[in-house]
Structures are given as C-alpha cells and as structure tokens.
Amino acid sequence: MTERSRRPHKAGNGEDSIYWDKSKNRYIGAVSLGYTASGKRNRATVMGKTKTEVRRKLRDLKKELDTGIKPSATYTVEQAVEGWFANGLKGRDEGTVKTYRSLANKHIIPDLGKARLRELELDHLDDWLEVKARLLADRSLRILISILRRSIRHAMRQKKIARNVAELVELPEGRPGRPSKSLSLEQAAAVLRTGVGSWIHAYVVLGLLVGARTEEERPLTWTHVHLAGPDGAQAQPYVDVWRSVRRHGDTKTRRSRRSLLMSRYAASVMAALKKQQMQEHEGTWDDANLVFPSETGEQRDAHDVLRHFRSLLKDAGFEEPTAWTPRELRTSFVSLLSDHGLPIEEIARIVGHNGSTTTETVYRKQLRPVITAGADAMDDIFAGFLDETFETFEGLDGASGAP
C-alpha cells in the first residue's frame, strides 16, 4: 500500500472520515457528533485492520447513534464490570458478591479489562475462554461468563453499548471439579464418637444423620427443632429444614423445604445441646435463639464451621482433615443410606430431591408428613457403633428428646 493511499480523506461537514494511524498500525474511522459546550469538536471513533472493517464498524456505530446509544470509544470492559458491581448487585448475598468479585479480579479484569467494550469481538472471548477452560472448573467458567454478560447488559441499560457480544459465546468444557466423597461407616462412627457435647459434634450429627445442608444448619433456630412429636403423632422429635443462609433466608429452592424425623441418637444430641444452652444463658434464652451460634451469639460463617469441622476430624484420627468439607456430611448421609439398601427414590425424597436422576439439582416441597425413613435407617446403620457414646445421654428421654 502506498503512502498516498493512506493519506486521510478530508471529510466535509457531517461526513465520516477514515485515516491510517501509524502509531496504532490501524485504520481509524470517525463520526462527527458536533461540538461540546466548550466548543471542542466531539467525535466517535472506531478502528480496524482494513478500510472495509472500519466502514462496517462505522455503519454499526451510526445505528447505535440512531437508537439513542451514546457510545464511548474509551469505555472499557473493566468499567462495565465495575459499573455492574457498583449498581447491578444490590441486595445480593455477601458471599455471592465476594465470589464474583474474586473471579472478576483474577480473570476478567487482568485479561480483558483494558479492552474497549465496543471493539470486543466474539473471537476474543472464544480465545480467552479456551485458555480459562484449561485452568478452571465448569462452575467457575459459568460464573465468569455470567459476570461478563450481566456487566455488558448493565452497560446496555446505561446506553453505553448496543450489543452484548458475550451472549453469543459458546462455553467450552472446563476442568472437572473436585470430586465429592463420602465417609465410610467406620469413619462416620469415629467422627460421631469425637467431641461429644460440643456444638460442632451436634452440627455434624445433624448433617450426617439427618441430611441437612450445612447452609441450612447455620441459620437454624430452636423454633424449628421439635423435641416432641408433631401434635403428639410422632414418637420421635423432628427438625424443620425450612431456612438457609441464602438471600432472603430461603432454602436452595422453594421445594427444598422439608421436615425430617431425627434418629434416636440425633434427637438425644440435640436435646443435650439445648439443655446446655439453657443452663448457660439462664433467663435470657428462648426458642428464637440460633442452634449453633458463635461465641458472640451471631450466626456462624462458613469458614468458622469449616475450621471447627476439620479440627474435629483431626481429633478423630483423620490423616488429611483438610481434604474434607462439611458439605460432604450430606454426601455421606446419602451414601450410607444407599449402602444400607434404602431405595434411591426414598433417599431423593428424604434429601428434598424431586427424582433420583436429578438428585442434586431438582427439589420438591415436603412439609408434611414428617419423613421418617432416614431416621429409622440411621438407627439401624449405627446400631452397635455408638452404644458407648449414647450412654453420654443416658439421662435423657431418647424417645421424646425432651431436656
């Protein structure tokens, strides 16, 4: 290409101009938007490797202008992401925001942050996601593209951009996530024999022998732990799993709400914990109190529970306690019931799932009747393993669980 052909064409009033920028090694296209209040010329620009590419971008730019969009040549992906964090996540759970922020700071802003949003192309995102797919699990990849899509959508509402290129990208398959695992019967019995009388022991009992999610245990109050049967119809106590730490206090989904009968051992442990708390807070205690409060009476956070849980595993003789998380108590609950021969359909009902094939994703509402099969099975499963530990609660009424 000759130097003559690269010379900028002098545009007339209101005409577009295309010229070669040697410093950027790109063609620049500009549309005149008149003048600012200070008298400075106001132009919107695009750039490309060829004049044909620039002409196309200029046509797209004019369409944006015709629809009232006020594109900025300097508006970046980072600005869009920060704008969404500032105004698009109001009312969201603090933990969710923290997770999103961490992923954005580690992967989106360093890699794409300086890119001009108007010039972000599908090929750029495809290449970026291919690299990320070799580093991140599927769930993290889905969150990343969700952050980007929602950030650009927010920018569209602010009339910063006319299209959302992130909506067009196809998500590659990421690395497999950390495989879940479950405690063996012997491991579970060892854990249940450890730390008897502590809150973390009761926390483990409720997850392992009743099947409550760890996010459902942390906000649990004594109002939802019934140490007498419902209307006198049940011989054993039960727990209403109706709340979680999620936004608005709902369970994972509306259908996750269920009431579960506690095994005799679980009922005795919970009764002992309640009696202990009543004695410690005589005169200031009521059923609205948290079942597993922190030292200051507040709801425990996930890291605090994790720390105490792993300490309990260490005391129980686990070689690698850091390889386990409280969420795997529920996995162990399902595994132990399955090994015991309980039909998968019944297990799905106990844990609040609507069908065995989608056990971990689809949930059903179960308020009444109180589900009894899990409690009965757990009493059978741990028969003989916990006889010595059960004597700790010998002074309690095992059937009613009353303190």
UniProtKB/TrEMBL annotation:
The keyword Amino-acid biosynthesis does not apply. Gene3D superfamilies: 1.10.150.130, Intergrase catalytic core. Coiled coil: none annotated. Keywords: DNA integration, DNA recombination, DNA-binding. The keyword Chaperone does not apply. GO terms for molecular function: DNA binding. InterPro entries: CB, DNA_brk_join_enz, Integrase-like_cat_sf, Integrase_catalytic, Integrase_recombinase_N, Integrase_SAM-like_N, Phage_Integrase. GO terms for biological process: DNA integration; DNA recombination. Pfam families: Phage_int_SAM_3 (PF14659), Phage_integrase (PF00589). Residues 75-156 form the Core-binding (CB) domain. Residues 178-379 form the Tyr recombinase domain. PANTHER family: PROPHAGE INTEGRASE, PROPHAGE INTEGRASE INTS-RELATED. Belongs to the 'phage' integrase family. This is Site-specific integrase.
